[in-house]
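Example (one chain per record):
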Amino acid sequence: MRRSFKVSLSAVAVAAHRPIAFIPVFITPSGPVGWHKIPSWYQVSGADRMIDPAEERFMAKRAGAITIEFPTASHVGGITVYSKQFTHVIERAVETTAVNE
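Predicted structure:
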C-alpha cells in the first residue's frame, strides 16, 4: 500500500501528537447528540485501514449525513492526498448551515 503521509508531514504529526486525558473523555457526559437535528456531512475513506469503510458508511447513514466518498483515501486522506476536496466538503457544509445575520 502506498504511503499517503509525506515523511516531513509525518514528523510534524508525531511531534504535535499528545495523549488526551482519557478519564474525563470517557466519563463526562457530552450532552445530547447534535446529529438528530443538525445537518451533518461524512467523508468515507474507501481505503481506510483503521476504520472499516463499511462501518464509516453505516455511521454516516445512521446520522442521515450527506456522504462523500473518496475511494482511494487512507485514514488520513482528508489531510493528505484529498486535502483540497476535503476542504471543499467542509466549505459546502459551512455555507449550507451558516445563519445569515
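Caption: The chain has a mean pLDDT of 81.
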